[in-house]
Structures are given as C-alpha cells and as structure tokens.
C-alpha cells in the first residue's frame, strides 16, 4: 500500500518547523498577475460562438453629419478621402469650420480640393454677449460665413455650461440675446447642430454605481455634480428644449441623441412635439447597441429624424462598429471606446429603407448644397 505509506511519511515530516516555513513562503510569494490587474485593464475575450462578423464598409454611401477636422494639411486630407472611400463615406461634415478667415481657409483646404466630399459648418463667437448689438453682429457674421460656403451652424456645449456674458453670468441655451442668430439660421435655410449638456451620469455621484465611472476617472473635469457650479441636467435640457420650441422655423440637429439615448421614449416624445428637431448618433452608438429591441423600434418610428454621425474621425474601426450595430443582427460584440460603455453591442438589423434615411436621405433633406450625385436616387 504505497499510497498510505507516502501520506504517513508526509504527516510525519510536517512538524511545527515545516509548517512555519510553508507559511513564510506563502507570505513572501508575489500575488498572481490576475490579482494585481485593475478593472480598467480587464478586457475579456468572449468565448461565445455565434454567426456574424465585422462590417468594414457601409451598405450605402453615407454622410457623417458629426465630424471635426482642424487644420487642412493636404496630405492628411488626401489620406482621409482614401479612407472615406473604403468606408463608403460620401461626405464628411466638419462642424469645426470656424468663422471668417479661418472658415475660408478650412473650406479651401477641404471642399475646395474635393467638392462634395466635405461640408463645413460655421461657429459663433460668443465672447462679447451682453454688449449692445451682439446678437445682430453675430447673425451678420453667420450670414457672411454662409455666403463664404458654410452649410450649417454648430453650437458647442460651452453655451449652457461655461460661456459667461459681459456681466460674468452663465449664458443659458434659451437666452433671448441669441435669438437673432437662430432666426438668421432659419432664414438662411441651414441646420443648427447643437450640443448642450453631457451624459446624465456626469451629474450623478461619482461612485461605484455610476455608469460613466471610468470616463470620470480619466477626465475628472467632466464631473457636473457640483450644484454651485453647474445647473442640473434637467434644467440644462429644459433650456435647450425651450430654445427648440421658441424657434419653430429653424432646423435643429440635437447632437448625441440629445443625451436621451438611455431614455428613447422621452426622446421620442420630444421629437413628436417638435417637428423642427432632428438628432444624430455621434458618440452615443453604445446606447442603441445595448437595447437592440427598443433601439430598433425607435429607429423605425423616427427614421425620418435621425442622422448618422460619429463625432471623432479616430479610431476608424469605430465606424465598423456603427455599421455592425445599424445593419446586422449580430450579438454580443465589442464597442470601440471603453469609457463610453463597458457593455457589449447587439445589432439592430435596420431595413434598407431606414438605413438609407439615416445614412444619407435625412441629411439630403436638411443640409443644403450636398452633392446628390454621390448618393442613390
Ligand atoms: Zn462633436
């Protein structure tokens, strides 16, 4: 019975000294790498085997209605156009066109060299708001910028968040002193793409329950949970919605699903109430990708009101995730930016009719001067 013999032997040698040595060795042993890893480094590879796979080219030519491009280095623009061709991106809308001379230079470097492939939006300079005549001056500048080739107006989130007037008071989105600008955009027939506010979790306590905990850890300045410094999420959104209500003859593209992508029923109500409001998908694809049933129903119902947009050129692979969420019924695949979403994506499987509207038909309807020859009839 050799087994019994061996176990007897080990028991015999496991005296107090041996046990102490074993305990010391255990205490000195470094923790396994798995124990030292942080949650930020955790990137599990799914073992799930299901049909589907990457989509590297959109099914239809599309307009990226929410892009940013600063500087006009010709080699960079050439490379961009090559990549756009690979993605089936017909037109890139640069929301950071600027104003005046900067805008003219931007237009010359982009659509000046590749007509139809680039669109520039103008931006408003809010410094000086509060001084007499500011609104009229800003509206006149917008008119000049549209004459110079701008095809829309982009409003950054500094309005409603950081922008102060000449008395040092924060300027709300529905501040009547800006009215001449909104009226001018309506008169010129250009859309206003407007980003007001932030994802609502930025206002929530920054704790273990916060959906954007990682993003706030990476960018703590994005926190909005200090009521002494920031109006509440509800107030900020309410002011923006008032602005839309006050200017029914101006088309607004409410950026980032209006930060209501986590409450599509509420966003639907807003779109029902305000026919002058559209929305787009910049940086909020993960909202649709985590609710494929509700998300697909929303996209079906509001197919005439949503535009394709990504919000950042890089990473290019992010576009592939957009195509996959919108076009396929794939299950449980990775998103491209961990700080936005630590969850997996599911495809909405939108019909060709809905896809065409989101990819280009809605843009053709509201952005003037797009090159129709780049899109199917
Ligand atoms: Zn943006």
Care to describe what's here?
There is one protein chain. This protein is of the alpha/beta class. α6 runs parallel beside α7. It has one domain: Metal-dependent hydrolases (TIM Barrel, Alpha-Beta Barrel), CATH 3.20.20. β5, α7 and β6 form a beta-alpha-beta unit. The strands form 2 sheets. It has a 6-stranded parallel beta sheet with strand order 4-5-6-7-8-9. Strands 1-2-3 form a 3-stranded parallel beta sheet. The chain is built from 14 helices and 9 strands. Bound molecules: zinc ion. The site of zinc ion has 4 residues, from loops.
For the record, give the distance between the C-alpha atoms at the N and C termini, rounded to a whole number: 87 Å
CATH architectural arrangement: Alpha-Beta Barrel
> Which molecules other than protein and nucleic acid are bound?
zinc ion
User: What is the CA-based Rg, rounded?
Assistant: 26 Å
Output the CATH topology.
TIM Barrel
Q: Give the strand content.
A: 5-15%
Helix content: 25-40%
Largest sheet: 6 strands, parallel
Assembly state of the chains shown: single chain
- Low-pLDDT regions: 1-11
Widest sheet: strand order?
4-5-6-7-8-9
- At the fourth level of CATH, the homologous superfamily is Metal-dependent hydrolases
CATH first level: Alpha Beta
State the order of secondary-structure elements, H for helix, E for strand: HHHEHEHEEHEHEHHEHEHHEHH
């Amino acid at each position: 019975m050799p087994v019994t013999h061996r176990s007897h032997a080990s028991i015999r040698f496991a005296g107090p000294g041996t046990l102490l040595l074993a305990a010391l060795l255990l205490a000195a042993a470094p923790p396994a790498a798995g124990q030292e890893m942080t949650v930020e480094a955790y990137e599990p590879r799914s073992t799930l085997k299901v049909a589907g796979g990457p989509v590297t080219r959109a099914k239809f030519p599309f307009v990226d209605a929410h892009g940013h491009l600063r500087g006009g280095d010709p080699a960079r623009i050439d490379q961009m156009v090559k990549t756009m061709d690979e993605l089936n991106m017909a037109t890139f809308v640069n929301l950071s066109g600027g104003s005046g001379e900067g805008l003219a230079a931007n237009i010359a470097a982009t659509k000046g060299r590749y007509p139809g492939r680039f669109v520039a939006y103008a931006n408003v300079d809010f410094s000086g708001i509060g001084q007499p005549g500011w609104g009229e001056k800003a509206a006149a500048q917008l008119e000049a910028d549209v004459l110079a080739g701008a095809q829309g107006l982009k409003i950054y989130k500094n309005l409603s968040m950081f922008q102060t007037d000449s008395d040092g008071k924060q300027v709300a989105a529905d501040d009547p002193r800006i009215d001449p600008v909104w009226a001018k955009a309506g008169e010129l027939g250009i859309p206003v793409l407007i980003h007001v506010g932030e994802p609502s979790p930025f206002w929530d306590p920054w704790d273990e329950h916060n959906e954007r905990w990682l993003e706030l850890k990476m960018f703590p300045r994005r926190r909005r949970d200090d009521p002494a410094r920031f109006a509440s999420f509800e107030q900020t959104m309410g002011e923006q919605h008032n602005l839309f209500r006050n200017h029914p003859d101006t088309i607004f593209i409410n950026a980032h699903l209006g930060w209501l992508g986590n409450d599509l029923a509420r966003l639907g109500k807003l779109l029902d109430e305000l026919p002058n409001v559209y929305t787009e998908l910049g940086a909020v694809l993960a909202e649709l990708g985590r609710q494929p049933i509700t998300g697909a129903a929303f996209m079906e119902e509001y197919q005439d009101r949503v535009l394709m947009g990504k919000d950042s050129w890089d990473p290019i692979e992010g576009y592939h995730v957009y195509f996959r969420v919108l076009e396929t019924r794939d299950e449980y695949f990775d998103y491209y930016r961990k700080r936005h979403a630590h969850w997996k994506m599911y495809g909405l499987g939108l019909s060709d009719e809905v896809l065409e509207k989101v990819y280009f038909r809605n843009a053709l309807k509201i952005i003037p001067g797009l090159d129709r020859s780049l899109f199917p009839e």
